[in-house]
Write a structure and sequence with these properties.
This protein is an alpha+beta fold. 16% of the residues lie in helices and 43% in strands. The radius of gyration is 25 Å and the shape is globular.
Length: 266
């Protein structure tokens, strides 16, 4: 029979080895790029088809296992966001109210943009329903085949928009600005827990979402989605892993201590 001390150390090793297993991750690597211009947004339709946009109207297409430059971009303005409804339908937005539409296998300029303000983010609920946000609280709605401005409760810059459904969505921006879309209109979320700039928002569901902020701040939305309700709170970025590691260390230490005590008695 194996000594108790040996068994204790074996248990401790197994527990510690379990840490990287439980938190196993893949790895990021650089791939060849056909441009040196800054890229600001990427959207993948599938594992084999995607688009990226950036400075000076740069548009890249991922197909056939590599990225290539879309040589006939209809604009030289910076593009900050791209969203594909499908492999054959998508939108991109950028400086000076620039709006591009991908249809019929090519990108074209949407000539009747209702704003000249910078557009930072676009999100399509469907091929016939979408939203874009930008500088000075600009909010655009795509419906009935055209883009139009809608009333905004803020003049602060908006950097990101995410729609849970056609009737529920969120937008975030400068100085801690949080907007909620419900009941057919956008309203200011009055109890923002930060005054720092919010750069991106993502909703897992109507009752669960995340936003990231300058200086490393992370916000979490939890609770039912009333017009102005639920809760958004800063998150401790180490809170997920720390208790797990601490528990393993305590179990291992206790196991070694018990085994040592038994050996001394024998």
């Amino acid at each position: 029979m194996l000594p108790a001390r040996f068994l204790a150390f074996a248990v401790l090793i197994i527990l510690l080895v379990g840490i990287p297993t439980a938190n196993a991750e893949g790895s990021w690597s650089t791939v060849s790029s056909p441009t040196t211009n800054d890229l600001y947004s990427v959207f993948m339709v599938s594992a084999s088809d995607g688009w990226a946009v950036g400075r000076r109207g740069t548009i890249l297409h991922y197909t056939g296992g590599s990225w290539s430059l879309y040589a006939t971009s209809p604009t030289t303005d910076h593009l900050y966001s791209v969203f594909m409804v499908s492999a054959s339908d998508g939108w991109a937005v950028g400086d000076y109210g620039t709006i591009l539409h991908y249809s019929g296998g090519s990108w074209s300029l949407y000539a009747t943009s209702p704003t000249t303000n910078r557009l930072r983010s676009v999100f399509m609920v469907s091929a016939s329903d979408g939203w874009a946000v930008g500088s000075w609280g600009t909010i655009l709605h795509y419906t009935g085949g055209s883009w139009s401005t809608v009333s905004s409760p803020t003049t602060n810059d908006l950097y990101s928009v995410f729609m849970v459904s056609a009737s529920d969505g969120w937008a975030v921006g400068s100085w801690g600005t949080i907007l909620h879309y419900t009941g057919g209109s956008w309203s200011l979320y009055a109890t923002s827990p930060t005054t720092n700039h919010l750069y991106s928002v993502f909703m897992v569901s109507a009752s669960d979402g995340w936003a990231v902020v300058q200086y490393g701040t992370i916000l979490h939305y939890s609770g039912p989605p009333p017009p102005v309700g639920g809760s958004i709170a800063p998150v401790n970025k180490l809170a997920v892993s720390a208790p797990y590691v601490s528990l393993l260390v305590l179990i291992g230490a206790a196991t070694v201590a018990v085994a040592t005590k038994r050996n001394r008695k024998t």
